[in-house]
Design brief:
The two termini are 49 Å apart. The strands form 4 sheets. The protein has a 5-stranded mixed β-sheet, covered by helices on one side. A two-stranded antiparallel ribbon has the order 1-2. It has a two-stranded antiparallel ribbon with strand order 7-10. The model has no long low-confidence stretch (mean pLDDT 89). The chain has helices at residues 5-17, 20-27, 31-45, 61-85, 99-116, 168-171, 193-200, 219-227, 241-246, 274-289, and strands at residues 50-53, 56-59, 91-98, 120-127, 140-145, 152-159, 162-165, 187-188, 215-216, 233-236, 261-267. It contains 10 helices and 11 strands. It is α/β, with parallel strands linked by helices and 293 residues long. Helices cover 42% and strands 19% of the residues.
Length: 293
Amino acid sequence: MHLPLNALRAFDAAARHLNLTRAAQELHVTQTAVSQHIRNLEALLGKPLFRRLPRGLALTDEGQSLLPVLSESFERIARALEQFHDARPREVLNVGVVGTFAVGWLLPRLRAFQEAHPFVDLRLFTNNNRVDMAGEGLDCAIRFGDGAWHGTEAHLLLQAPLTPMCAPAIAARLHQGADLAREVLLRSYRSDEWSDWFTAAGLAGLPGPQQRGAMFDSSVTMAEAAAQGAGVALLPARLFAREILSGRLQRPFAQELQRGAYWFTRLRSRPVTPALQAFGGWIREACERDQPI
């Protein structure tokens, strides 16, 4: 079936405004033209798309089913055409990212960056915070720590305090911090985190149950183990917001442990390219808008 583009545009505008006059103003045509396009489209489809009311329009069931499909299609066309207006050549940007930050923060927002900066050909290399930017040919890296790396310019992105997190079945039996003595505590390669959390929670004398849990080199895998009931993990809650909202992980205690933050870093010896400037500016602004859960 051949459907004229102008008629589809007229329907999309009228359906969003539910007003022929405002639709005509958006499309820079007359109200009569919009009305005629819609009548032609309804005739081709053999279905009414609007109900005419004394003070405007209302979508029929057919119109309601057609609108989101058309709106998404027009948005995708607009995004594709915008790329032709960017005269800059595509530029490769190699970015090293701590796996926890990549999965918990960057990936859900990656599409927004790509749409805003289509000239950047982003290459992501995940790691467990052990990274050699010069040796690995990275233009920049997102790292966890105190921001003090030799020869590196670092900009603070996110604070990420650690807090105990576990599956709901385990959280249900944790009423106070001392109850952790009966649980398996999962560990990272930073072996002093649990003892420091106990001290911050006023439980420095608690026996060492943390010695019983498995050790992980990635918070992502440790979080998955915790969600599956393997034990309690110390995790940055703001990077596991989806797991908390879905109920797979819970925070039994409010006590947090500050051990570092996530930083956007680059070697001072490496020149700032347009792609590096675009990505660095975007991620810093996005993190400033982000709020802890």
